[in-house]
Amino acid sequence: MHKVIFDTDPGVDDAMALLFLHRHPAIELVGITTVFGNASIETTTRNALFLKGAWNIAAPVAKGIGETLDAGRPHVGWPTGIHGDDGLGNIDVPAQIDLPLDPRPAHRFIIDTVRANPGQVTLIAVGRMTNLARALRDDPEIATLVKAVVIMGGAFDVPGNITPAAEANIHGDPEAADVVMTAPWPVTVIGLDVTKTVMSRAMLSDIAERGGAPARLLSDISQFYIDFYEHHVDDGMIVHDSCACAYVVAPELFQTRSGAIRVLCGGIADGQTIQKPDARLFPPNAWDGFPSQQACIGIDAEAVLKLIGDTLADGN
């Protein structure tokens, strides 16, 4: 059983990943922490509460702070053309959700939960790394107490998706991402090298038919996202965030490469993720002295999609 804190910015593919975590029998979802990215922090937190209520999720929701680690970074507009004005595919999410938030800010919730469960908590972060970096800044020792950190973000041997160099989650707060990648905790990065895994319309329709009301809501949320992806894939939607969740329960379906990872902060390649593979020798450089982390470079896409689909349709 994996105790998981899900750090998220819902977000359509975040919603699918959340339902996966809720329904997978090997996952104990102990908390949902919100971050800004796919929408403002107010909207992503409202969406997390909406999904918690709609899917009867017991885990508490803790709200993050709505600014980057470097507060001087300029704001980048919300991707409403991908996730809709409400962040959940324009399904008219109510403006207010009558559910309480955890009283702690997200980074404090992470610290307290990790300290209460030493060596047991896996952090799955599928948005900007801001909450994780803040938690490390306030309590660096948690790096020795976390079981694992799994990130959806970055691009290593492929181009980015927000610039030619950078993936959107990392680009949104590069300073935070560099803090997270270089901390002495075990990080696995599930980036664009492997997350461009496409769930077809037919597969989503089958999930909605088999998975009851929660899966039908997920299908409704996903339609706007699928329409966006018509210009990028032949049929369906890319399931970025669910791939990171699938890694936690089935790491054997992924191929990883070990080495220190740094994130460029500034310049035309702002947000680029670069790994120094352990198998390569280099003169002294800025990667020296940092822990080796895992970058995913291969995936059994068919098996991962089956795992995601079966869990969404036939879970708890």
Number of strands: 11
Q: H/E series, N to C? A: EHEHEHHEHEHHEHEHHEHEEEH
Number of helices: 12
Q: Widest sheet: strand order?
A: 3-2-1-4-5-6-11-9-10
Mean pLDDT level: 94
DSSP helix fraction = 25-40%
Could you characterize what this model shows?
With 316 residues, this protein is α/β, with parallel strands linked by helices. 38% of the residues lie in helices and 18% in strands. The chain has twelve helices and eleven strands. Strands 3-2-1-4-5-6-11-9-10 form a nine-stranded mixed sheet, with helices on both faces. The chain has a two-stranded antiparallel ribbon with strand order 7-8. Helix 2 links the parallel strand 2 and strand 3. Helix 4 crosses helix 5 and helix 9 runs parallel beside helix 12. It is globular, with a radius of gyration of 18 Å. The model has no long low-confidence stretch (mean pLDDT 94).
Using brief descriptors, characterize the structure shown.
single chain; 9-stranded mixed beta sheet; globular
What's the arrangement of secondary structure elements?
Elements: E1 2-8, H1 12-23, E2 27-34, H2 41-54, E3 61-63, H3 80-83, H4 106-116, E4 121-125, H5 130-138, E5 148-152, H6 168-172, H7 174-182, E6 187-190, H8 192-195, E7 198-199, H9 201-210, H10 212-229, E8 237-238, H11 240-249, E9 254-263, E10 273-277, E11 293-299, H12 301-314
Parallel strand pairs: 1-2, 1-4, 2-3, 4-5, 5-6, 6-11
Antiparallel strand pairs: 7-8, 9-10, 9-11
Helix pairs in contact: 1-10, 1-11, 1-12, 4-5, 5-7, 9-10, 9-12
